[in-house]
Sequence to fold (317 residues):
Amino acid sequence: MAMKFKHKRFENFVPKKTVYRASVADRVISVVIYLVYAIFAFVCVYPFYYIFINTISNNDMSARGKVIFLPHEIHFNNYAQVLKIEGIGQALKISLERTVIGTLLTLLVAAFLGFMFTRESLWHRKLWFRIVAATMYFNAGIIPTYITMMNLGLLNNFWVYIFPVAVQPFYIILCKTYVESVPKELQDAAEIDGAGTLLLFFKIIIPVIKPILATIAIFAAVAQWNSFQDTLIYVTDKRLFPLQYLLYTYMNSASSLKALVSSTASATSLAASLAHAQTATSIRMTVTMVVVAPIMLVYPFFQRYFTKGIMIGAVKG
Fold:
């Protein structure tokens, strides 16, 4: 009877939820944290926003610095005209090609060497790994590197954008660390089934290390897209100029940029309209947006891989 009475007494008992009430100090700290992050986000985003609103605003007002927070007399004529400047299309093609091909080759080399440096069967693997890692801190210098590129026939050659950056020690270390976090039994099982080195790499390792590959891909793509110093040193052929190099040229000649655009090719109606409607500031801002926009649009799609790709394998148990 006692057990029955006890059951009836507690059968409708619902435990009360613990309600956490933040103290005044906690609320103040939260507000300060949100405020700091909001200011930081604004500082990061505003320069891009400022450039964009200046590209779609009245060109005269933009040149006089009157466009600060809101666009005035919105139009998109600047983009239509700037994309017609001689060399922009070819430069965009070169930038896309070097970004895609360079990123793929860098990924393949980093993944394969990172995998091989974890293989105990590799002859003197620790020695080779240390030699590769040492290149992060030491290099031959500009003149010896230039002579090497000249002897290899890479001057004024598209592949000068690709081959010199194919082996990246930092990316190799990331891949090596990630592969080491993969259970060894997975590789052993594949080898027992008769998988060789290449089959093991492409069928087992590549699918497992996709997060770190995605992280490296965005790093390598951003580096390739933004690079222009190699053009300054190794390339004089205008057909091989990337978009970033044109932006660099335009930035250095901003004061005479309007005259440069107006005198492009023969005296056509396009040049006349550019001289009448656009200013050096509007062209400079628009070219900047054309250069920056593609990589900004791609970046968010890879962002979710960053934390997972970098952190997995970083902590050893």
In short: The longest helix spans residues 24-55. DSSP finds 16 helices and no strands in the chain. Residues 265-276 have pLDDT under 50 and may be disordered. The CA atoms of residues 60 and 66 lie 9 Å apart.
